[in-house]
Give the backbone structure.
Amino acid sequence: MKGLETLKDLVSKFLKGSDVYEKAVDNFIKDLQKTLISADVNVKIVYELTRKIREEALSSNPPPGFTRRDWFIKIVYDNLVRIFGGDVSPQITPSKQPYVIMMIGVQGSGKTTTCAKLALYYKKLGYRPCMVAADTYRPGAYEQLRQLGDKINVPVYKGDSSDPVKIAVDGVREAVKDGCNIIIIDTAGRHGYGEEKALLDEMKAIAEAVSPDEIIFVLDATIGQKAYELAKRFHEATPIGSIIVTKLDGSARGGGALSAVVATGAKIKFIGVGENVDEIEVFNPRRFVGRLLGLGDIEGLLEKFRALEESEKLEKRMRKALAKGEITLPDLYLQIKSILRMGPLAKILQMIPGLANLPLREDNMKISEKTMRKWLHIIESMTEEELKNPGIIDRSRMRRIAIGSGTNIEDVKQLLLYYQNMNRLMRDLKRKRLSLPIKDLKDLEGLEE
C-alpha cells in the first residue's frame, strides 16, 4: 500500500541504527507520525498511537534475551495491530446453509466485482455460491454481473421484474430450489446525499423482504479517513455484519480508510488486493501490519516473542491445573496447540517452578503430532455442553463429533482416554507436591482462586 510502504525502511533504519536509544525512539516516532498522516490516518489517532508507543517503550524493559530495539519494534507492531482491528478474527464459515449475503455500498466502490470475488472465494472452499442481480439503478449492472458469473462458472439470477425487492426475493427462492448454499445479492449504489437516502430506503426494503443472514458493506479505500463518516452512517442505519475494503493495493490512503472503519466499531472481513476476480483475502490485522513493517525482516523476531508469550500462557494454565488437580478440555486444547509449537509436555512441566524434581512418566505423555492435530479438530467439533462435561459424551455423540471432525469414533475414544489419564496425572502431581520443599510449594500457592 503506497502511503505506508516507507514503514519498512523506518524499521530497518531503526534496527541498524547506532543512536542512543531514547533519541532513536524519538526519531522513529517523528517519522512514523509523518508516514501515517501522509497515508490519511486521522491525526488524533496518530498522536494517541505514538504517545502510547513512546510511553511504553521508555517505561518498560524487554524480556530476557531481547534487546531494547527488538522490544521497541514489538511495541510498535502491537499498537499498529490495535488501530487496524486487533486480534478479533472475522467469522468466515457460514453459520447455516443456505446462507444469504446482501452486498451494499455507494456507486464506484467495486461492489459488483466484489460479489464475484466473494462467490469465487466460497466456491474454492467447496460451497455452491450464486449471485442475484438486484441492482436495477445502474445501466449494465446485470450484464457486468452475468459476465463475471460466466467467468467463474457461478449462476446469476435476475428475473423479469424491474422491482429490486421482487428480484431479490425471487432470486433467493430460485437459488435455494437449485441447491445453492451461498446466495450473494448485488444491490444498487448511489452518489450524493439525496441518493444515499434512497439507497438506504431501498436497502432496508430488500433486507426486510429477504431477511439476509449477513449484510456486507463494500467500501472504497481511496476515500481515506472519509470512510469514518460513511461507515458510521451505514453502521448506524443498518445491521451491517461486516465490511469489505476494496482497492487497497493501489491506494495511498488505505491506512486511513482501514483505521477509520475500525474506529466506527465495524468489523473488516475481507480486503480487495487487486483487480483480478481472485484477488480478495480475509483481513488479518497482524498479517497486514507485518507486511507494512517488512514481515521478512521481522518475522523471526515476532516468532520469538510469540513463543515467549505462548510459553508464559501455557505455564500459567498448567500451574492452575496442577493446583486444582484437574484440567478441562479447553485447557487440553490450548496445551496441545502449545505443545505442537514448543515440544513434549513432560519437558514443559519440568520448566515450571516447583515441578523440576517430580518423577514424571514421559512415556505416558508421548503422542504423535498427527494424532494431536486430529485431537484439535475433535475438540473443535464438540458442543459447549460437551466441553464442560465430557462425561455426557456417549457413542451417539462420539459418532457426531467424529463426522464433524473428519475422524472416527476410535480417535474420539483415544482423546477422551488421554484426557482421563491427564487428569489422573494432575491429581497425582497435586498429591506429590505436598512433599515438595517449602520453597517449591510457594511457587504453586495462590492458584486455587
Notes: Confidence is low (pLDDT under 50) at residues 346-365, 434-449. The chain has three domains: 2-83, 99-285, 299-443. The radius of gyration is 26 Å.
